Amino acid sequence: MKVSVWKGGAQGAFQEFEVPRFPSQTVLDVVTHIQRALDPTLAYRYACRVGMCGSCAMTVNGVPRWTCRTHVDRVVRNESLSIAPLRNLPVIRDLVTDMSVFFDKWARAKGQFQGSRTKDEDFERIKPSSSERRQADAGIECIGCAVCYSACDVVAWNPDYLGPAALNRAWTLVKDERDAAKLERLRAVAGDAGCHSCHTHMSCTERCPKHISPTAGIAGLKREILKAAFRNEL
Ligand code: SF4
Ligand code: SF4
Ligand code: FES
Q1: Burial class of residue 140, CB neighbours in 10 A (0-12, 13-18, 19+)
Q2: Which end of the chain is more exposed for a tag (fewer CB within 10 A), N or C?
Q3: Candidates 105, 153, 154, 195: which one to mutate for ligand 1, based on the most atoms within 8 Å of Cβ?
């Protein structure tokens, strides 16, 4: 098949390669073949190859995807593929983007667990079946791949917007009964760059490879902020 791969930084261009097909071939296999056999200078990123680490996401035929779990058969069109870096992130080189801004936004959304107990106290017992825990668990399997971030048009229009992944992380912590920083976190995501900027386009939810719905979490954050505002807590 013909494969067009982005080479260079933001001002780079697509370069074409011929790559042999084989059964169960993934898009990451294609990129690896190009780097090993055709162009050793090609820069790309991956670690686990089994959908755990979140580092292999790229834009494949215009759509953000985790490449290690995307089979060529599913995405190839007319025996051709185009592979580019993720949208909405600065390109370092070829298929490698700078993820700092993405993870800085997790920090801005107060994405760190803040417990209240010391190591001398007993564990807090939370029922896995409790409504709060189930809502937190629905978003907890995020692998930080930035597929949703790349799919979100609001991030493209407003680079300051925290984006679906950071807001989903904030939601899982707001719903975590052990966490002691709920109001601080709601304040962090309530501003102009926070959850109220979401236009509910659902692209993040459609694209998330872990079947998480950041859209639902963001709607939940809006409800929690409204409730806290009525109670004069914010
Ligand atoms: S639902 Fe919100 S966060 Fe998700 S892609 Fe749409 S605008 Fe972005
Ligand atoms: S919410 Fe889904 S798409 Fe977004 S970073 Fe997490 S796993 Fe990736
Ligand atoms: S290489 Fe780890 S998720 Fe794809």
Answers
A1: middle
A2: C
A3: 154
